Amino acid sequence: MSQFDDISGMETLRARIDALDAALIALFAQRRALIDRAARIKAGSDLPARIDWRVEQVVANARRHAADAGLDPELFENIWRQLVEAAIAQEDRHLRGDRP
């Protein structure tokens, strides 16, 4: 028995998925704001946007959380690598003084 077994119709199910997608986007927006803050801290500390050990730590965390949730760790590693690369590009722009 799933926590969603009470959803009986596709319209209701789709509305729940859409609401969840909106919540995920809001969380990604918060993550982006944190990346902006990281870039400002890195600029003040003369740190580069890419810190390889941290990239691998973030990806390992994503894999672990995915596995713990019963999700495919490889899929989420791939997703998180793309997410991290986008964050590094965002930090690079900030460190160069560019504004998107």
TrEMBL record:
SMART domains documented for this protein: CM_2
Enzymatic class: isomerase
Protein's UniProt keywords contain Isomerase: yes
SUPFAM superfamilies on file: Chorismate mutase II (SSF48600)
Residues of the Chorismate mutase domain: 4-95
Keyword terms, alphabetized: Isomerase
InterPro entries the record matches: Chorismate_II_sf, Chorismate_mutase-related, CM_dom_sf, CM_II_prokaryot, Isochorismate_pyruvate-lyase
Presence of the UniProt keyword Oxidoreductase in the record: no
Top-level taxon: Bacteria
The enzyme's E.C. designation: 5.4.99.5
Protein name: chorismate mutase
